[in-house]
Amino acid sequence: IADVTDIADRGKGMAILGASNSFGAVLGPLMAATLAFAGALFPMYVAAVLMGVGAIAALKMMKEPERHSS
Q1: Are 41 and 32 within 8 A, CB to CB?
Q2: Residues in CB range of 58: below 8 A, 6 or more apart
Q3: Which burial class, exposed, middle or buried, applies to 57 when counting CB atoms under 10 A from its CB (0-12, 13-18, 19+)?
Q4: Cβ within 8 Å of residue 67, ≥6 positions away
Q5: How far is it, in rounded angstroms, from Cα 24 to Cα 3?
Q6: 52: which of 16, 28, 59, 69 is 20 to 30 A away, CA to CA?
Q7: Residues 51-60: pLDDT tens digits?
Q8: Of 26, 25, 32, 27, nearest in space to 47 by CA
Q9: How many CB atoms lie within 10 A of CB 43?
């Protein structure tokens, strides 16, 4: 985030990154506990599938950003 945002928007970008990390730290265990009713290993399978989908989406949709010189 720091190398692709200008100085004026850097704080906002870092805040969004921190908020999304905290959101995942809260929702992850909640989802795992909910999915555990289907079986002890089921949450791990769902996590593996979601990670794979996220990796494929990142490879297809993201491109190398243009860096700002600040």
Answers
A1: no
A2: none
A3: exposed
A4: 3, 4
A5: 23
A6: 16
A7: 999 999 999 9
A8: 32
A9: 19
Pick from 50, 51, 32, 30: nearest CA to 40:
32
Residues 12-50 pLDDT 10s? 989 999 999 999 999 999 999 999 999 999 999 999 999
Give the burial class of 35: count Cβ atoms within 10 A of its Cβ; 0-12 exposed, 13-18 middle, 19 or more buried.
middle
Query: Which pair of tokens denotes residue 43?
Result: 């949450």
How many residues make up the chain in this entry? 70
